[in-house]
User: Fold this.
Amino acid sequence: MHSKRRKVESSSHSDTNRHDEQEALGKWQVTPVLDDDVMSDKVMLLDVYVDKVTDPKHTSRLIRDLNALCPIPSLQHLKRVSKLGMILNLAPEEETPEICLQKLKDWGLDTAGLGCEPRRLQVPAVPPRTRRQYEEAMKLWPCNFHENRYLEKVLSGKLFDDTDRLEQQKYMTKCLEAARYSSESGGAGVGALVVDPAKKQIIAIGYDDRGRYHLKHAVMVAIDLVSHSHGGGAWTEEARSRYSHGSPGSSDPVLKTGPYICTGYDVYVTREPCVMCAMAMVHSRVRRVFYGCPSPHGALGTTIKLNTLKCLNHHYEVFAGILESECKNILTTCPKNSVVNF
Amino acid sequence: MVNKWMDEALDLATEALKAGEVPVGCVFIYNGDVIAKGRNTVNETRNATRHAELNCMDQTAEWCMENVHDFATVMSAVQVWVTVEPCIMCASALHSLHVAGVMYGCKNDRFGGHISVLNTALLFPDPSPMVGGLESDRAMQLLKDFYKGTNANAPHPKVKKITT
Ligand SMILES: [Zn+2]
Ligand SMILES: [Zn+2]
Assistant:
């Protein structure tokens, strides 16, 4: 979709800029990097035995008795009864309908009101996580659903409006400057920026300098510059270099004291981060990561999605595609990329 | 055999504990010599990525400058001795540098990049061999001592004994 073109009467510099920015917005799309469980519309299935209810007068009693005699904890998200009948029990492959029914009778079920001809049916195996999954699941069997409104907004692409996207574009443009500098000075052509979204304040800009030192990926450099701006840091020479920028801590009256100095901050980076950088951002408690183009070694969507590993103690949100083609262009003109392996 | 390199790494971890850092220590061995000794400096640097292994890498880079050696060549011959399973970040950095081998003490249930959380070797075409379980009780005891003490920054870890 094309952004609405504003008629530029005046040729003043800022108006032209604004016009260009608006036009550029139409050229990229932001894509959330989410757990596969959430992205998929496929419903995982499970076999159960279902029996017709021949006398509706018994329905509520049957539900009560079945829930007491034969609860199915793994199927809490499903209603016990539907137009198709009553779920009796799970249906393991080797178990015949007769065995299923006999077991229930042995456990003391009064089968009055049931057709006593159970048939195998496939029902949704896990609770739906998105509205789309819910709609698919409902085609098979009625189920409960607790909508995550934030997630629905992310999925619908309505999380960010044009103001947000202009801001993302602005930050990524800054990253691109650092990326260009990286490319010219023997790095991998990647730039990164850390911003405090609450104050709209850029905290640090770093560029990839792996030509000089293997670990100086743009993200690692930017994180260290944030530490530097809070009175710490390990790579102090970075703070003096041209395209590295760490805003002095004195501008922030409340210096953060712990090591988790990126708490609440967003990171912008021109290329999908590698697994080292992705984990460095977990350690630093970054809030959100915005990247431009994917990388064959990327750990936020391409090889893995580190942000979706449930066992980690911190999870940031990830969005891809900001000024994607510009970010990619710098990489293709960067000689360093033929030799790097992550 | 009691390993002197792991002893050195454990000494560094003890030093970290005394300094109020997560007690992890690491030494890099090149041609039979220690060329880097590192420990966590996360609080000191206010940088949550300053783990023992990365500090050793920085030292190795300096050592290479002073001794006019190629960093990548030296790293590919380095034996890493570290008291705790390298985290996903450090394990990735070590694989990417093709270190000769990694020997570690106890598991890292929260962040481990070898067997605990994510096997990072699968993400690299030519990963480095890693072996755990050396002096793991001593390494684990240091972590327990740390998390027993006052630590405002980190949540309580679920530390388990290595089972192998
Ligand atoms: Zn990286
Ligand atoms: Zn680490």
Summary: The two ends of chain A are 34 Å apart (CA to CA). The pocket of zinc ion (ligand 2) is lined by residues B 51, 53, 86-87, 89-90 (CB under 6 Å). The first strand of chain A starts at residue 31 and ends at 32.
